[in-house]
Specification:
0% of the residues lie in helices and 54% in strands. It is mainly beta. Strand 9 and strand 10 form a beta hairpin.
Length: 115
């Protein structure tokens, strides 16, 4: 059972990245998925989440209108499209899969926004 976050990197302000959260060993169909981030010296914060039932989404105020979460159950993957990136988006991004008592975390992927 593994959750793998990927897609991070170095990007200039205003640029875009797409993060992926891929599951292996289990299916994401029944899981709610959340993206979190942790910047140096700061606590981990929630960025976005998507439900398993109706695909409803939520976003932190700081990323509304810039980030989009989506899921592709056929590929067993959830995505976070990040546009108009700002230096304050720099952090390690983690994904979480949650269903009943099952709670899995990915290992994190570094996003650095800098000129």
């Amino acid at each position: 059972v593994q959750l793998q976050a990927s897609g991070g990197g170095l990007v200039q302000p205003g640029g875009s990245l797409r993060l992926s959260c891929a599951a292996s060993g289990f299916t994401l169909d029944y899981f709610a998925i959340g993206w979190f981030r942790q910047a140096p010296g700061k606590e981990r914060e929630g960025v976005s989440c998507i439900s398993s039932s109706d695909g409803s989404t939520e976003y932190a105020d700081s990323v509304k209108g810039r980030f989009t979460i989506s899921r592709d159950n056929a590929k067993n993957t959830v995505y976070l499209q990040m546009n108009s990136l700002k230096p304050e988006d720099t952090a390690i991004y983690y994904c979480q899969a949650l269903w009943r008592s099952r709670d899995y975390w990915g290992q994190g992927t570094q996003v650095t926004v800098s000129s």
